[in-house]
Amino acid sequence: MAKGAATRKQLLKEPDQFISFSGKLIAFGRSNLKMVLISAGIFVALLLAVATVRQVSNRNENQASERVEKAVAKYSAALQDTDATTAYDRVKADFTEIFDKYGSKSAVKIARIAYGDISYNAGDADTAIAMYTQALDDFNRFPALRNIVMSGLGHAYALKKEYPQSIRYFETISADEETTMKSEALFNRARLYEATGEKQKSTALYEQFLTDFPDNMYADMVSEKVNR
Known about the structure:
The protein starts with 7 loop residues before the first helix and ends with a helix. The longest helix has 21 residues, at 59-79. α5 runs parallel beside α7 (106-121), α11 (182-195) packs antiparallel against α12 (199-212) and α12 (199-212) packs across α13. It contains 13 helices and no strands. The chain has a domain at 8-166. It has helices spanning 8-11, 23-31, 33-37, 44-50, 59-79, 84-102, 106-121, 125-138, 143-159, 163-175, 182-195, 199-212, 219-227. It is mainly α.
C-alpha cells in the first residue's frame, strides 16, 4: 500500500465506527496479494473497506455478507484459470443479484467497491465509474475511504482516456487534509501529465513526489524520469 495510507486502527477512529464483517474476505486479500497489487491499486479499497464495515445483526445483512464473500471468492477462483475479462463475465450475474436483492445493506456498499474494481480490471470503465460514484456517496463521511474511492474514479476515467476528469479526482485527493492515497494521487497526476505531453507540469510533480515521498516504492522509477 502507498505510504501514508490509513491503518485499520486509524480507520476505526472514524465517526460511527465500522468493524469487520468478514475475516474470510480479509484472508482473500492476503492470500491473493499479487493479484491485488496488479489491479492498479484500486482493489485496496475493498481490503480497507472490508476491515471497517459495520457489524450486522439482522438476517438479511448476514445473507448479503455471505453472498458478497461468495461472489468475491468466485472471482478469485476464476482468475486462477482465466483472464480478468472472463472472470468478470463469470460473476456479473452474482453481483447483479446482490445489488437487486440487498441494495440497502452495508455489505453491498463494500460490494460496489469490489465490483467497481473487478469491472476496471476487465476494462469496463463505465461500470467501474458507476460503482465508484455510488460508493462515493456511501462513504462520503469517511475521509480515508472517500479518497480510496476517488482514486478508483481517477483510474477509471484514465482508462477511458478522459484525462482532465481523471486529473481532477487525483487533484482533489492531493488537496485533502486526509493523507490516504496522497502519494499515489501525486504520482498519477505526474504520470497523466506526462501521457498528455505536458512535460513541465509532469516534471514539477515528479520532483514534488521525490521531495514529499522519498521512501515511496515508486521513488527510484520517478528519480530516473526526472534525471534522464
